[in-house]
Design goal:
The complex is a heterodimer of chains A (427) and B (352). Helix content of chain A is 39%, strand content 10%. Chain A is of the alpha/beta class and 427 residues long. In chain A, strand 7, helix 13 and strand 8 form a beta-alpha-beta unit. Chain A starts with 11 loop residues before the first strand and ends with a helix. Chain B is of the alpha/beta class and 352 residues long. Chain B folds into two domains: 6-115 and 278-351, FAD/NAD(P)-binding domain; 119-274, FAD/NAD(P)-binding domain, CATH 3.50.50. Helices cover 28% and strands 27% of the residues of chain B. In chain B, the strands form five sheets. Chain B has a five-stranded parallel sheet with strand order 3-2-1-7-18, sandwiched between helices. A five-stranded parallel sheet of chain B has the order 9-16-10-11-12. A three-stranded antiparallel sheet of chain B has the order 4-5-6, with helices on one face. In chain B, helix 1 packs parallel to helix 8 (327-351), helix 4 packs parallel to helix 5 and helix 5 packs parallel to helix 6. Chain B starts with 5 loop residues before the first strand and ends with a helix. The chains are: A alpha/beta (427), B alpha/beta (352). The A-B interface holds A 20-25, 29, 36-41, 43, 46-47, 50, 59-60, 62-63, 82, 86, 89-90, 115 and B 204, 206, 212, 224, 227-228, 231, 233-236, 245-246, 248, 250, 255, 257-258, 260-265.
Chain lengths: 427, 352
């Protein structure tokens, strides 16, 4: 990997006398580079992080460095818990640093960390402090504002949240009218508004109808699950959205909530219960559908080689690795091939923990986007299709296919799209 | 023939434990200690708290000493040294000397528990300046301050704002001749770092290390708490030199994980000195003609399966007499040596 030169000649400084805290330490080290900081160690900055609730384990790092090879950001940049710990120990203020915003909370570091340094707790805690002091990248600030104003990160009209329903010929009932349903389908933002997310929603609507599932959606009464905003530091906003959604679930006495977004799954399973939302169970559509594949009438042989990308928040965070694979294996004419990094060690698409909205910020710190790196890995397998089951991924990977020059070699599809392709054209 | 006593040389933790063990099973021990007090190096060097359990060292040593004082099966000889020996396994004749004169005693077997001494940083090939700078001290010096519950800069009596430990001083060093790891210094430094943070909460504490060797439970009992609870900063890379700047010390080294030079001001620098064989260990080895290893500790000849046997039949060694050992190791090997020493006297009594 080519890297930027370590030395920027403009920033070379030469001091006749180097004096620190009144102490003259002149010598050949005067001739040095501003980029290097050699003087002093500042435990205060480390304490600042470990003093924050959730930040405690940051101070536990003993530099074994197991996190670095599995940090998806380090593979395209210079990052990872061990490195951040050292930078903070040697003078970096994490509350005012580019390092604060690069973590995608993919959890691969925590998976291998012997000391359980928990970036999934540390990052939101530090970011929350940064948010409170207004120290947030602009693009992320805009997403927070959109979520406050419109209930979704894109700033789309909340009234049009269910507009996608017009694109399906199948019935998608609203809870407002239906009142009661076995499954409350929480559609979430990207599957409601993003054109490629809508494609997957339309496909799922057809499958649910085919199976005769008793379901309903919230439509305009639904707000963003807000898990990624929470991980990006907006705990207050998260709580607001969560309380709204919990109220809706209560209103319809929801027992089972079906999601397509693993980030919503994560919020509902682990965070909503803390706010009173523990009366329903949440199921990802792959977990649900894996047992019904033989009832879908999939008669069309697809004849494609498929590789599958494990979403961080379905796999590592919630332990579901098999359901998506079971679905893919049940589709006629699908040959499943795995990428080197898969399952527990799956590579992050870069969209989690707020990364979805920080590509601009990240571009200053990485040689390529994480999604670009992942697409290159997918192409290496010789697959025709990169199958996904997280709504953040389709758009990220499709863009990466273009930016890495792999158009025509690889297409990106949600698993549910492959299912309906095999079911054949609508009658 | 009745059973001969076992001679135990050295009244530190290992020697006391060996003598107590021999007495407990009904055999007789002669316990010889050069000084007029039991307790060995923990007593002599004013240890404050034991590693790793933070037990008060004085209290623990007094408790040990009580088991062999006024014990009918222990003939305690304080202020005494062994000056000569003749005979062989099962029947040694040993000369014990004290201020009143010399006495010859017959013993069946011998346990040497003469232990170690702390490395003298004056021999350090690096420029740590132990004898130049008042504020460069050793683990042992700090231990004394901890016992007095007063940690201050020796140069001016003020509490330190920044204190660091430099690991591996006098150990793991081919030039000095001590190629071995002294085993205990990582744990002792971590223990002392906790005590410093307890006594002087405002003091920032750093440990500069090559590898932290915290085997077994020392990892979770001292290393992790020192970092996680007491916020001691561990920096990989030991300093190369110390330069005096005004009334502070400038520690110069490389921060190896950052790959860059490091210059850190400190109020107190603690050298984590390791272990060397004590004078007593070398003297006893000469008298009993047991083989020393390359580092002048008494060589054990049984490999991994016999950690207390020496090159002379009927002569055993335990504790830090055979190499760096912590208190836990010393107590264990003392029991092993006592067992083997009893076996010798029992067998020769049966044969006799």
């Amino acid at each position: 990997m080519s890297r930027a030169p370590n030395v920027d000649p403009e920033r070379i400084i030469e001091k006749e006398h180097l004096v620190q805290e009144g102490m003259d330490i002149s010598g050949h080290w005067n001739r040095m580079f501003e980029q290097r900081v050699i003087w002093d160690y500042t435990p205060e900055l480390l304490d600042k992080v470990t003093d924050v609730e959730g930040g405690e384990s940051f101070g536990w790092c003993y530099q074994c460095a197991q996190c670095i090879p599995v940090c998806p950001v380090d593979i395209v940049g210079d990052y990872g818990p061990r490195k951040i710990f050292r930078r903070v120990q040697t003078g970096e203020d994490l509350f005012d640093s580019a390092d604060t915003w690069q973590c995608t909370t993919c959890m691969n570091c925590l998976r291998v960390c012997p000391k359980e340094v928990d970036m999934i707790q540390i990052m939101p805690a530090v970011r929350q402090e940064a948010v409170l002091s207004g120290n947030v990248p602009e693009e992320l600030q805009e997403v927070f504002k959109n979520t406050v104003d419109y209930g979704n990160p894109m700033g789309e009209s909340p009234k049009k949240r269910a507009a996608w329903v017009k694109k399906t010929t199948h019935e998608v009932p609203f809870m407002k009218e239906k009142k009661k349903a076995e499954y409350l389908w929480f559609v979430e933002c990207y599957p409601s508004y993003h054109p490629r997310g809508v494609d997957a929603s339309v496909a799922l609507a057809r499958v649910l109808n085919h199976l005769g599932v008793d379901f309903g959606i919230l439509g305009a009464d639904e707000k963003c699950s807000c898990d990624s905003q929470r991980l990006a530091g907006e705990q207050g906003l998260f709580e607001e959205c969560a309380e709204h959604n919990i109220k809706q679930f209560k209103r319809y006495k929801a027992k089972k909530v079906l999601v397509t977004d693993p980030h919503a799954l994560n919020a509902f399973r682990h965070e909503y219960p803390k706010l009173g939302g523990s009366f329903f169970e949440t199921i990802h559509y792959t977990t649900f559908l894996q047992d019904h594949m033989d009832r879908l009438g999939m008669t069309h042989e697809l004849g494609v080689k498929v590789t599958f990308h494990d979403p961080c928040y379905l796999g590592r965070h919630n332990g579901e690795y098999e359901a998506p694979r079971n679905m893919l294996k049940a589709i006629p004419g699908v040959e499943l091939t795995e990428m080197g990094r898969c399952r527990e060690n799956s590579y992050c698409c870069g969209g989690g923990g707020g990364g979805m909205w920080l590509d601009g910020h990240m571009s200053d710190h990485v040689t390529m986007r994480l999604s670009d790196q992942r697409v290159i890995e997918a192409v290496e397998t010789g697959a025709d299709v990169l199958a996904v089951c997280c709504p953040l991924e389709v758009s990220r990977f499709e863009d990466a296919v273009k930016s890495t020059g792999n158009e025509g070699k690889l297409v990106v599809k949600d698993i549910i799209e492959l299912v309906v392709e095999s079911m054949g054209p609508e009658e | 023939m009745s059973e001969q006593p076992v001679l135990v040389i050295g009244g530190g933790p290992a020697g006391i434990e060996a003598a107590r063990g021999i007495a407990d099973v009904g055999y007789n021990a002669i316990l010889v200690e050069k000084r007029n007090v039991l307790g060995g190096t923990p007593e002599l060097a004013n240890y404050a708290a034991l590693t790793p359990d933070f037990r008060d060292a004085g209290e623990a040593m007094a408790e040990m000493a009580a088991t062999v004082t006024n014990n009918p099966n222990v003939d305690l000889r304080l202020g005494s040294t062994v000056t000569a020996t003749t005979g062989s396994s099962g029947n040694f004749e040993v000369t014990i000397k004290n201020s009143k004169g010399s006495e010859k005693v017959s013993v069946g077997s011998v346990v040497i528990a003469t232990g170690f001494q702390h490395f003298d940083p004056g021999r350090e090939t690096q420029q740590y300046g132990y004898y130049e700078y008042d504020d460069v001290i050793t683990l042992v010096d700090l231990e004394k301050m901890l016992k007095a519950k007063k940690v201050v800069k020796p140069s001016n009596g003020e509490p330190p704002k920044r204190l660091c430990f430099i690991q591996c001083v006098g150990s793991r060093d081919r030039q000095i001749g001590n190629e071995y790891c002294s085993k205990v210094c990582c744990g002792v430094a971590a223990k002392e770092s906790i005590e410093v943070r307890q006594l002087v909460p405002d003091c920032k504490v750093f440990i500069f290390y090559i590898d932290m060797r915290m085997y077994g439970y020392w990892e979770n009992e001292i290393y992790w708490p020192s970092q996680e609870k007491y916020k001691v900063n561990y920096i990989k890379g030991i300093a190369t030199e110390i330069i005096k700047k005004g009334d502070r010390l400038l520690v110069r080294g490389e921060d190896t994980t950052m790959g860059r030079p490091m210059e850190v001001p400190m109020d107190i620098v603690v050298l984590s000195v390791g272990m060397e064989p004590s004078a007593g260990t070398r003297e006893m080895a000469a008298i009993f003609e047991v083989k020393l290893n390359k580092y002048n500790f008494i060589e054990t000849t049984g490999g991994a399966l016999n950690t207390v046997g020496t090159s002379v039949e009927g002569v055993f060694a335990c504790g830090a007499t055979t190499g760096p050992a912590d208190l836990e190791d010393s107590i264990s090997s003392a029991s092993a040596a006592a067992m083997k020493a009893i076996t010798v006297v029992r067998k020769s009594a049966m044969a006799g």
